[in-house]
């Protein structure tokens, strides 16, 4: 990929109907799917084709190049097999970096919790195998590849880094993860590894199940305060790790369940239901034995929330 121009873009207002000239074709902006500090995401068609694409248009060249380099880290992984977003090309246009991705749909329904969990564990397992940490797992970054067959993919590798870099570069720790999904070790400035992704995924699953954030999202103080109410103060040996405790929302990252271990959990394999037919299960924590062992803190949190309401 080649880029031209300054690191900051000149004023250029991209609108619906405009064309983006890429290396592999010309794309027409159909509509905008979202925007943020980085720029915009546009739903685009390619001239001469019926295919639609999601193009992330990044207004700061350096940030765009960094995301492109992050995507190169995972190019050895099959995007369909490992449930990762597929990138087709990267090009510069009007001093903006354009990343062309497959177009996916947002994920919201509670019905999909197990499917999301299993496929994201596979995605994280694949990333761990090549030494990459996503660092920005949140609801917006897990999307449908195919709604009918419940296929999901992990998107947006703009903050992805190599695990070794995460554990040694102190500057990275300031920028990773948004607050509602931020792991406690990130907030507390402790050593980091790929387990920060597992915490964030646990927060996503809890959020999908409950319909709102598990912890207050406004500040790190409120987040830590809620964590202490649920888990208690961090143990004295938090820096001297023991064996893992089988919960995805485990404060100690060394005891947090890994993607490989999570894929063997009863909630995913349903092995405990083998041979049991015509069994009706309630929708909720009791649907599968062991589900509450991952997200057990939710019950405690619900109790705390009810107490807070009653005291008003």
TrEMBL record:
Q: Output the Pfam families linked to this UniProt entry.
A: Pkinase
Q: Which residues bind ATP?
A: 56
Named from the GO MF annotations, one term is: ATP binding
**Keywords linked to the UniProt accession:** ATP-binding, Kinase, Nucleotide-binding, Serine/threonine-protein kinase, Transferase
Q: Which residues form the Protein kinase domain?
A: 27-268
SMART domains on file: S_TKc
According to its UniProt record, which protein family does this protein belong to?
A: Belongs to the protein kinase superfamily.
Q: What is this protein called?
A: Protein kinase domain-containing protein
Q: Which organism is it from?
A: Oryzias latipes
């Amino acid at each position: 990929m080649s880029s031209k121009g300054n690191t900051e873009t000149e004023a250029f207002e991209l609108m619906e109907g405009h064309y983006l000239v890429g290396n592999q074709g010309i794309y027409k902006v159909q509509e905008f799917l979202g925007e943020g500090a980085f720029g915009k995401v546009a739903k685009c068609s390619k001239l001469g084709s019926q295919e639609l694409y999601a193009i992330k248009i990044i207004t700061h060249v350096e940030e765009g190049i960094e995301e492109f380099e992050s995507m190169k880290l995972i190019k050895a992984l099959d995007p369909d097999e490992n449930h990762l977003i597929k990138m087709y090309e990267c090009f510069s246009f009007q001093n903006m970096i354009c990343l062309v991705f497959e177009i996916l749909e947002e994920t919201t329904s509670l019905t999909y919790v197990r499917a999301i969990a299993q496929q994201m564990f596979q995605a994280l397992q694949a990333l761990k195998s090549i030494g990459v940490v996503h660092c920005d797992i949140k609801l917006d970054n897990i999307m449908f590849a195919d709604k009918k067959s419940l296929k999901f993919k992990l998107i947006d590798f703009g903050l992805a880094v190599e695990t070794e870099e995460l554990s040694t570069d102190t500057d990275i720790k300031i920028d990773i993860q948004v607050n509602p999904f931020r792991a406690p070790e990130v907030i507390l400035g402790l050593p980091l590894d790929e387990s920060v992704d597992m915490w964030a995924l646990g927060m996503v699953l809890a959020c999908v199940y409950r319909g709102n954030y598990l912890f207050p999202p406004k500040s790190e103080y409120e987040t830590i305060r809620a964590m202490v109410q649920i888990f208690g103060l961090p143990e004295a040996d938090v820096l001297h790790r023991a064996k893992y405790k089988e919960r995805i929302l485990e404060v100690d990252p060394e005891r947090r369940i890994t993607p490989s271990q999570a894929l063997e959990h009863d909630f995913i394999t349903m092995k405990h239901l083998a041979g049991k037919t015509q069994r009706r299960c309630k929708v909720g924590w009791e649907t599968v034995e062991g589900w509450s062992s991952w997200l057990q803190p939710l019950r405690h949190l619900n109790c705390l929330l009810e107490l807070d309401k009653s005291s008003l």
